[in-house]
């Protein structure tokens, strides 16, 4: 994708509106990335743009925002399916894009906002979500249970645990020694969770030797469920290359670029009536950045 700026997009939008015969815009309203567009629209003049309402945005993308964008891009790049952007349409780097989306979601709320909404609550087990939308098979041995807990949230492709370099897959034998001793194990994270596998005529909850097999239990939190569910929805409607291009577009934002020497001087060029709105729990665009806009706009 070619690098384009927010200013480029506004100029293109203006050409479209001119072609449609639009002579004046009553109000331009937008938040976050949209708020950056709002500020750029203002420089088309007060006779064309009557008023603006930037919401939870900034006059130039901060080092904090640039860093989050880089972390999200690296998540996509790390997906083997990314292939320098030349991935198959029907087999995109969904895992990387999902992880990038999760990172972005962390910036939409503050630490206290996440704590207030989720705390250490557990979601409904019947509504467990994963990035791929696949549910794992229930483990039948303590070793398998530990394997699943360790890789919870990862797209596991193995049907069994294998030893690297051996060229063969080795099914780990059921052994009570693979689980922490029941007298020292933290009960919240190590059970009791009984196996539901049946084999050789065994009933649910019984091991092949006739005794019950207690498996370690994963403690799955609502905050994790929220991130995975949102990532699942997002990858179904968004493209990884578009996402990368969007984050780079954010990085270019600076209303003073090519106009004035400072941000304050550039904002002072905005003459329209302006309503600036901020969100206290926003983890990316701070209230101080909204105050900066309000302070310098005429």
TrEMBL record:
Residue stretches making up the AB hydrolase-1 domain = 5-127
SUPFAM superfamilies xref list: alpha/beta-Hydrolases (SSF53474)
Q: Where is the composition biased (Polar residues)?
A: 123-143
UniProt xrefs under InterPro entries? AB_hydrolase_1, AB_hydrolase_fold, HAT_MetX-like
Q: Does the keyword Transferase apply?
A: yes
Cited PANTHER family:
HOMOSERINE O-ACETYLTRANSFERASE (PTHR32268)
What is the recorded name of this protein? Answer: Homoserine O-acetyltransferase
Taxonomic source organism: Epichloe uncinata (Endophyte fungus)
């Amino acid at each position: 994708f070619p690098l384009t700026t927010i200013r480029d997009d506004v100029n293109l939008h203006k050409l479209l509106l001119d072609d449609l015969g639009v002579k004046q815009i009553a109000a331009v309203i937008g938040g976050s990335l949209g708020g950056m567009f709002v500020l750029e629209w203002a420089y088309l003049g007060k006779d064309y743009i009557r008023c603006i309402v930037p919401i939870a945005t900034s006059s130039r993308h901060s080092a904090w925002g640039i860093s989050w964008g880089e972390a999200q891009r690296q998540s996509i790049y790390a997906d083997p399916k990314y292939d320098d952007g030349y991935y198959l349409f029907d087999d995109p780097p969904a895992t990387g894009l999902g992880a990038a989306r999760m990172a972005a979601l962390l910036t939409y709320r503050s630490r206290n906002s996440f704590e207030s909404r989720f705390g250490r609550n557990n979601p409904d087990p019947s509504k467990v979500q994963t990035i791929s939308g696949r549910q794992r098979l229930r483990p039948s041995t303590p070793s398998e249970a530990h394997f699943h807990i360790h890789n919870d949230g990862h797209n596991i492709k193995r049907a069994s645990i294998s030893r690297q370099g051996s060229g063969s897959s080795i099914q780990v034998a059921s052994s009570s020694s693979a689980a922490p001793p029941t007298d020292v194990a933290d009960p919240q994270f190590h059970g009791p969770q009984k196996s539901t596998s049946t084999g050789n005529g065994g009933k649910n909850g019984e091991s092949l030797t006739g005794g019950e097999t207690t498996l370690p239990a994963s403690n799955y939190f609502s905050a994790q469920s929220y991130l995975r569910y949102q990532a699942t929805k997002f990858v179904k409607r968004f493209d990884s290359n578009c996402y990368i291009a969007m984050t780079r577009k954010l990085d270019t934002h600076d209303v003073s670029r090519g106009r004035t020497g400072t941000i304050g001087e550039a904002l002072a060029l905005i003459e329209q009536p302006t309503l600036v709105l901020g969100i206290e729990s926003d983890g990316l665009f701070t209230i101080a950045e909204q105050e900066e806009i309000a302070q310098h706009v005429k």
